[in-house]
Each structure stands twice: as C-alpha cells, then as structure tokens.
Amino acid sequence: MTHTPKGSAEGMTVASSPIGGRAIAAGARAVIALRNSGKHGRRIQTAINRATEDLDLKVTVRPASESSEVPIWERAHPKLQCEPSIQATTPWQRLLAEQILMEQPEETSMAGLAHRYADAVGKGDSTIRAELRKLLVHTGEKWEAA
Prior knowledge:
It contains five helices and six strands. The chain is 32% helix and 24% strand. The protein is α+β, with helices and mostly antiparallel strands. The N and C termini lie far apart (75 Å).
C-alpha cells in the first residue's frame, strides 16, 4: 500500500478547487439573437457571460444578391449623425466644430479646445466649452460630433 502525502499532486482536485478552477477554466459564453418587434424594430442582442454590458444594436438584413440566401447585416443607424446637430447652431459654433472635426487637434478635453481656439473665435473659454459640449465628444482616439 502506497501512502500519498497531504498536498501532493495526486490528492488535489482540479475543476472545482477552492481557488476558482471553474471560473478560470470556463470559456466565455455568448448568446446572440436576432429580434424583430414592431415597437423596437429589427435588432441584434447579445448576452456574454464575461462582458460588462450587453449589446443591443438596431440592424437591417438583406440578401447578398437577388438569388442568394446569404444575409448581409448592417447597422440600421450609423453612430455618427453629425450634420443635423452642427447645422442647427450659430455660424461661429458650426465653423469651429467643423474646423475641429477636420483638424483633429491633439487636445482631448473641452478646456484644452477652448484655450486653443478662444482667440481665433473671439469668445471666452467658458463660452466655447459650454457650446462645444453640445456639439463634440472625444472618443479617446479622435473628436466626433455628439
């Protein structure tokens, strides 16, 4: 008869050990569903066990060609719809917002933008910050219309 010392590899369990073996070893699981309702329209919903937030995207689906059954999925509403919000502003706000979107300055905050463009616009920093907050947002990579 062989004796297995306490704590040796032969005496340990793996999948449900107290250190969280299941949580570490379990793969990510996701459920993706196409939903279609009269109130919310057609959309894709996801539920992922390791995600911090579920997705709910409005989509359109069309065949790849007239004789094909292969679906082509596209977002129904692109994220950026900058034209209406920028066009509904005063001329100096519109021109400044368009200039910032075109130039993509290195400043990543409203305060930085206001300081940079205050002299060119002839407005105070606080006025520029307040107005640009309505029109622009920094995504972490670039400036985009709000």
